[in-house]
Predict the structure.
Amino acid sequence: MAARFPAPAARGVTQGTHAPVPSAPSAAGPSAHGLQLKDRRRTLKIVIMDEEPGPSKRRKSKTYYFHPEWENSFLFTQIEDTCACLICGAKLAVGKKGNVERHFSTMHMHFERKFPKGSNVRSQKVSDLKAALQAQYSIFAKPTKKANAATEASFKVTHHLIKNKATFSDGAIVKEAILIMADSLFKDLKNSPEIMSAISGVQLGANTIARRVSALSANMIVQLERDLKTCKYFSIQCDESVDIAQLAVFVRMVFEDFTVKEEFLTVLPLKTTNRGSDIHKEVKNYFAKQNVPLEKLVAITTDGSPAMTEHHSGFIANCKADPDFPPLLNYHCIIHQQEVCAKVMGFDHVMTPVVKIINSIWAKAKQHRSFKLFVEEISAEYGDFLLHTRIRWLSRGRVLRRFLSLLPEVKAFMESRNEDVTQLSSTEWLLDLAFLTDVTEQLNVLNCELQGKNKTIANMISSVKTFTSKLNLFIQHVQKRKMHHFPSVLQVLSEDKAEAELLDTEKYSRLLMRLNHEFNERFSDFELLEPCVMFTSNPFMEVDVSYISEQMSVLLNLDSATMEMEIVTLQNDIELKARQSDINFWSRVDAEKYRNIRTAAMKLFSLFGSTYLCESTFSDMNFVKSKLRTRLTDDHLNDCIRVALSGYTPDYRGLNCPLKLPDYTVLEDIMKHHVEGE
């Protein structure tokens, strides 16, 4: 179908179309004839279109436009896209001159006698009728606009509240607060009553907020489904909560132009058991229910729990055995593996007394308050402890750093209570504490680099490789008794130089080597992927073309022979070489010429490296599922989490569903009254 002919627009007047606009003629055969009538204010263009040549022709179609002079001649005006009579309010289906003139001459003959054409009294009457019609229009339009504005405001406030994990009942509190604030700010203004009335009209009750949340969530689901249909590939990350059996799922989508979106997909309740087969069943049912295109799935990233990773009955094993799932990659979360690696540090003889002392101070509120006051009195760097938890091993880094900083105050406080502090005075134990503090702080740096949104697999592999290289450097330095990368150890040694021979560098180097070995073992899966990731990050680097092609063929289900030819061609493409520093490089690569390479890059761009988004979701759920919200259903929980975490902007206008404008034929009696009253 060819493009439509553009209709000429007149300044200050909206065009109205009352017949289908014909298609533009193709170059091959259809003929078009244009008749253009002009005056100084308005152009009427009638486009006549013939059908394609053939034995039979369709009836010609026409497009009509309103003429401003009809207002004075026939007392018709334009309302939205229709012609309406100023006298009776009748609207014409086809607004051509003949219909307008016929209606005026047959229905309102008396008007011509009372108000002769061209007279001043006629012009004044037309103006009065137009003003009356516009006044009636505004009577209906203004309340509608106010209601729509209030509804839109209600949606926006709801979105903001749920983004901040507020409860449904908080909406009423917010409204009361706004009214109090507005009363102080606008009480001296002339339109203060109107402002207060507008604020009062915004519905923010608990039931209204609940409905708004469901509507916002549904709108975001529509946007998500649209993106899932238009994206080229996607991957998911899954993690299971430890308190109540619930599975959080996030999706990472890559599009034709290589833009990437990470979005919350769903939280699935596991109502019976949480075996791998149960998780697989729930995920598959959700995909089928939401029409998620499974053929686009590239990879699944999970934590290291048996339900996810068990070789024969885990979630991943069930997905790979299911013929409805495509061949896919699977990886354990890099952050989880890093934490497991960190646990090989051991050093229980350090952590046990530290945790015991901290928990002892926290155990009794009176002792805790006394210690805090004591620390404040001597102006210590920190005024409190971080309570250590075993749920996250890497919380040790912050705990140990703070404990070490407060060590003199801790010793003084414990001595004042006649508690044994012999171990806290041992240089050997203090060196172990300092060494563990420095190493765990390095692990914390890595952990922070791995966390966050929109982390590519390339970024995460680079961070892990950087850390293992640092470990190799640390091992070499420790073996040579160079401790300048261990500031806490240097601090302990500087306080007692006579005890420097107690520094057991052999023990520390063994520990670092064990940690390095654990990292290499745990991240061996990523070694297979690393060459492919490096190539997509720098496609013009020197590579073994056959090896890269084979790896991409195995991992990404692509043809290795075609891949080889495309890599060779790409690396010798002078035009693309000149653009290799362009941030949008891959979107500029020809989709036909380098189809396999682009596909490989898209699949790699879609990969998650961790389950960080799922884990952070469970933290958010702790706020949403407070003790005061015991009646929160699974659907409401899912809606709240989606609205709180989604990156989509709600379509407030679409959600608003504005009321239809009134049918102006109901104004017929009013208009007649104006005429007959003359």
About this structure: The CA atoms of residues 303 and 336 lie 6 Å apart. The longest helix spans residues 120-163.
